[in-house]
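Hi everyone, sorry if this is the wrong subforum. Our group has a chain we'd like a structural model of before ordering constructs, and none of us has done structure prediction before. Sequence below.
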Amino acid sequence: MRKVTLGKTNITTNIIGFGALPIQRVTNEEAVLLLRKAYDAGVTYFDTARVYSDSEEKIGLALSDIRDKIYIATKTLAQTGEDLNKELETSLRLMKTDYIDVYQLHNPAIVPIPGDESGLYDAALKAKEKGLIRHIGITNHRLKVAEEAALSGLYDVLQFPFSYLASEAEVNLGKTCCDRDVGFVAMKALAGGLITNAAAAYAYLAEYANVLPIWGIQRESELDEFISFIDNPPNLTDELKSLIDNDRNQLSGNFCRACAYCMPCPVNIQINNCARMSQLIRRSPSSSWVSEDGQKMMNLIEECTNCNKCTEKCPYNLNTPALLKQNLTDYKNIISGATIIS
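Answer:
Right subforum, don't worry. Here is the predicted structure as tokens:
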């Protein structure tokens, strides 16, 4: 079983972390089944967030009786120290625990530091002194913020999008974390669903000894595939390397990562799906994409007012209105049966 240690923390776990965002979409019974099956198979790292509706509550239902055998990471969108304390109290209550292993500041626009106006870091540090949290972490989608956090010496764990579509700068961020003894947790290891070969994604990330991927799991079939990797880990074969190279040629660069930080849209465009529909409809075929509701969703792009609020909020500096329009044109060609010229 491949294992990874998160920087200078005492957290050592196998390299299949459970991303618990998707379990907010299933029933309590389904969530408990998934979480317990994952634990029984050897998964010990579970990542959630206060903003993931009832995900924390489901973790409490499923795992509170084995609390000392697992690691729990959660996140807060709090903007002040006072709000952080309230959110931490709620997270502890819902997950039926008296401590959080990794408590993460959730995608702040700047790196919170001791003594700043927000009071976020100071509140987290006091909570750590009280034993309510064991390690202070931070998540981000902005490379510059992530780099600053990794270099600051203030954070034990950094969570950042990382997959085989990563840029050279993003790969270097992982190296910085390794050099600075900062735990590196890879979110969006499947690039928001654009990577469809889990074995290739796993094999690539397994090449980085300091990286812990968390895999968003909603269906038992998804979990079963990752569980199979525990005893039979995929190797980065020439075949998988060729697949990765092909995906990089198709997807790297100007694509939507579905982080949803551009939302909500003033005219209700579902940007996190619509801005990547060209890739979704080709790589994960689904009748829902071409259904009447799917077409209505895409046609809303024609209502775009070019207000550029989405562009201003995009952590990846994408020209979102232009990307939406490109995807709409491509989508219409696909559903009309026209030949697509790439």
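For your construct planning: The two ends are 41 Å apart (CA to CA). Confidence is low (pLDDT under 50) at residues 338-342.
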